[in-house]
Structure formats: structure tokens, C-alpha cells
Amino acid sequence: MVADIAADAAADEIAIEACGSLAIITLNRPRALNALNTAMRRKLAAAFPRFARDPQIYAVAVQSASDKVFSAGGDVRELVRWGREDAEMARRAFAEEYSLNWLHECFSKPTISLIDGPVMGSGVGITFYGTHRVGGRGYRFAMPETGIGLFPDVGTAWMLSRLPGGMGLYLGLTGRSIGPADAYALGLLTHCIPAERFAEIKAALIDTWPVDPLLDERHTDFGAPELTRYADLIARCFAAGSVEEIIDRLESTAGPDRAWAQCVVQDLRARSPLSLKVTHRHLRDARALDLRQTLQVDYRLACRFLEGHDFYEGVRAALIDKDASPKWRPARLEDVTSAMVDDYFAPMGAAELVLPTRQEMQAARI
């Protein structure tokens, strides 16, 4: 009965239709800012193998029914409830999400995400691994997980770790958002196109127009990246070997950038100290990992956060009581020891998430 209710909800909250040679996925959960829940992810996981095997489907478009938000992330209320009441279900939800991210990465047909509005967390996870990511003027990217006692997951450590000049650590630790010009400059977007033109893009894809020239011809200059001014400062500060040293370098900033650096320090100090240190290590380690390996480490970390305190406290303070006053444990960066961080990364033996290899996914015609 519960599964039937969830399936019915997903049918309303995410629509999938075939129009000519285009499959269109529409997120339609506006009251929850298109937060992805497990039922929605399961519907996506079932759809992509069908798209791969359907000779009539040339490409897939992912969009939002709302013109205000693409996706605010995952349904963390659902995860918190399961974490407290059914730990196995919570772990399974993370495993299914990371398996879906890997499915997107291995999918064999063009996938075009049409994003105008905020895209965060799980919303990044269902868009970044497609072949084309189109941002409108309202596009805002963020991975704000350290603010709710978690870490940037859905494989984004792999992506963030490869951004130039410390930008990945800056975005992953602070959770700050960036607009389309910055995202395009960093490679998070493949194209910047005003949202008014999304309809004509879909119309052309329905008629099987080649994707690259279609998008290239409509790409628009949205202006200079906002972070260019602070690029050198970010590179210097976020190259530090520890979160404490990052903060020290920011606090020692003088001159016209001092006020901006102090605001970044305030953002960092408001976040879970444990999440910051786990994220710092995860993003540095991910430089030597591929995406599949990163997702498998994500699962290890997610399970450990489910067993801890800060994730539940962060969601309480941000989304339930909304008092914006989380009581982190430990409360100070200097009290988060290397041993604590090591415990989060420790192997889980038979409980590890093991994803199929890319070759195995391709053999299954995904």
C-alpha cells in the first residue's frame, strides 16, 4: 500500500512523456521546490533504460514545470524521518540515488537539462551527468549541504575537485551559489540560453535536430563571471591544507577584498565543523578518483552521517524549527579530530555500495 501511494505521488510529481524523437522529463513538485524524493528517483531509474532501448527516442530533455526553481535538492525531511525510524530504508535511499547518478553518467543518448532557477544537491545529480546543461538567466548553482550537517554528495566531489583555482573547495565548503556566467566559465554549464528559447529547443529536438549546432547557435553571452574579481583570493585561500588554515588566510586578507573575505569566514563558521572537515578531505581525495569511485565513497560517508548528530540537527534548524541556530557536535573546528574524520571514510566491508562498471552498464544497453 505504501509503495502504491508513493508511486501515485511520483506520477504527479514527475511527468515523463515522449514527443516525436524526444523524451521529456518534467519535475512538478512546486510546493516542495521540486525536491526529489525516493519515489521520483525510482521513476527516473526505470525510465532511462527504456529510453536507451527505444529506437524512436533520440534525446532526453529534463525541465521544471516551475519558472521559479529547477530543484532545491533532495527531500531531506524524508531522509531524516527514515534515518530515525528505518535506518535501512534511509541507507537504501542513498544507494538508489547514487546508482541513479551513475545511470545518468552511463546513459548512451543525448540528455539536455533546461535549467532556469536554483539547482542544488540532488537536482545537480540528475542534470550534471547529462551531455548538455543549458542555463537561463535565472540559473543558480549551489551545493549547500555543509549547512545542514551533510556533505556535497551525488558525485559532485569528483566534479568540484577538478575545478580550477580552488573554486571547487570554495563552492563545496561555503555552499554559496553562482549564476550562469560563472557556471559556464567553470564548465558546469555547456550553454547559456534565455529560458524564452527553451520551447524552440524542445521543438527542434522533437524533430531530431542535431543537438550541438542547435544549442551553439542559441548560446548567449550573459556577461562577465562575478567571481573573476576574487579568483586569485580564492585560489590562495582555498589551496590551504586544512579548513582552519583556509579561515586563517581569509581572515588575514587586507585591502578592498577584506569585507568579502570576512563574509566568507562568517559563512564557514556557521556550518557544521564536522561536515567542513569531511568535505575538505573528500574533495581533495576525489582528485585521484573517477566518478564511480567517488559515488561509492559518497555512500560510505552518507551512511556515517545517518549514524551521527549533525545531519538531523542541521535539517531541524534549517527546515523544521527554522531557528537557524544549529547546535553542532563538535561545535568547534579544532575539536574535530583526524580520527573522527578517518572514521567517516573507513571501509564498510560487505555493506559497501558496489556500482557496476561502465562496461557492465554498456553491456546492459543503458
Give a description of the structure.
The structure is a single chain. With 366 residues, this protein is of the alpha/beta class. The protein has a single domain (2-363), classed as 2-enoyl-CoA Hydratase, Chain A, domain 1. 49% of the residues lie in helices and 10% in strands. It contains 18 helices and eight strands. The strands form two sheets. A six-stranded mixed sheet has the order 1-2-3-4-6-8, sandwiched between helices. Helix 1 (2-13) packs across helix 2 and helix 2 runs parallel beside helix 4. The longest helix has 20 residues, at 87-106. 46% of the residues are buried. Mean pLDDT is 96; it is low at 1-7.
Question: Which terms summarize this structure?
Answer:
366 residues; alpha/beta; 2-enoyl-CoA Hydratase, Chain A, domain 1; 6-stranded mixed sheet; 18 helices; disordered N terminus
CATH architecture assignment name: Alpha-Beta Complex
Low-confidence region ranges: 1-7
| CATH topology title | 2-enoyl-CoA Hydratase, Chain A, domain 1
Approximate shape: globular
- Fraction in helix: 40-55%
Which structural category fits the helices and strands? alpha/beta
Head-to-tail CA distance between termini = 30 Å
- State the total count of DSSP E strands: 8
Strand order across the largest sheet: 1-2-3-4-6-8
> What is the radius of gyration computed over CA atoms, rounded to a whole number of angstroms?
20 Å
Topology (elements, then pairings):
Elements: H1 2-13, E1 14-19, E2 22-27, H2 38-53, E3 59-64, H3 76-85, H4 87-106, E4 111-115, E5 118-120, H5 122-125, E6 132-135, E7 140-142, H6 156-160, H7 167-174, H8 180-186, E8 191-192, H9 198-206, H10 211-216, H11 231-237, H12 243-251, H13 258-269, H14 273-285, H15 291-307, H16 310-320, H17 338-345, H18 358-363
Helix pairs in contact: 1-2, 2-4, 3-4, 4-15, 7-14
